[in-house]
Amino acid sequence: MVDFLAKTAITTAGVSIHHDPLPKCSVKSKLTEWAMKEWQGQWDHNIVGRSTYEVLPKVSLKPAGWPRELTIFVSGNGPFPVYLKRIARHPEENCASGKLGNPLHYATKCHLTESFHLSKPAEVNRVTWMRAVAGNKLSRNKIVQIVRFLTNNEALIKIK
């Protein structure tokens, strides 16, 4: 932003430059406001990170306070065959049961994680379900257990 303003000032004819000192807190506040708008614009229009965007659509300087495993679950970037195939660490995107090995499958349907299951949402309620899971301590704990189980037993979830 500063570079843009400086370039504009020297390339535009008739621009008068004022050297009125601004309070440091005012400059910091304006820059933070501008940076947050820029960040939100990029987050809104980016093509990657959409599963996380659905759960956290607004950028913030405050951390969500999620455990690592919940971040892995929401992003889908973890011990899930769909992700492992995408990064060429596994030839199949299906779990050992033959179903698509995505986070929702392991949290709701997979027989390997049956003791951790949560109720399966209707497809139209998937985003609401993900937000509710992220916001509920008991559900978060189950997700943590699922991701830890899958991480510790990665060989079980892969089709040989």
* Poorly predicted runs of 5 or more residues: none
3D shape: elongated
Most strands sheet: none
The CA-CA distance between the termini, in Å, is: 53 Å
What's the total count of β strands? 0
Name the average pLDDT. Answer: 89
The radius of gyration over CA amounts to 23 Å
The ordered string of helix (H) and strand (E) elements is HHHHHHHHH
Question: How would you characterize this protein structure?
Answer:
This protein has a domain at 46-51 and 66-158. The protein has 9 helices and no strands. The chain has helices at residues 2-11, 24-45, 50-55, 68-75, 81-86, 103-108, 126-135, 137-152, 154-157. α4 (68-75) crosses α8 and α7 crosses α8 (137-152). The relative contact order is 0.11.
